[in-house]
Amino acid sequence: MVNQNAAKLKLPKHMQIHPVVNIAQLRPYKDGADRFPDRAEANQAPEPYINEQGAIFYKVEAILNRQITPHTKRVTYLVKFRGQDAHENLYIDEATLLEDVPELIAEYEKKHPRSASKQRKP
What we know:
InterPro entries: Chromo-like_dom_sf, Chromo/chromo_shadow_dom, Chromo_domain. This is Chromo domain-containing protein. This protein has 122 residues and is an alpha+beta fold. The protein folds into two domains: 30 residues, no CATH class; 64 residues, CATH 2.40.50.40. It is built from two helices and seven strands. Helix 1 packs across helix 2.
């Protein structure tokens, strides 16, 4: 407890949020095992890779979708990360993925070619 109205949380180092919160935001932990005995245990997320600069990386498992913003023509891909649930999927810009996983982009583009009007111009 920082004071009567605030508590300091112990958070993993990779979480870049302020650890002090108002006590009105806190609730006692209840695991729910007694209420839901048949529920499968949650999968433990894999540990992220953290480089020397402190940036966090997860391994890309698959490219699921592509979207092109109509006005800016910016291309982003929906990425599934290894060991993460579907709600953790993110749209990531094409340039970033071409640096990190060009083989997955090429594989996706081969399976789902762009129409002639939406081809990327060099």
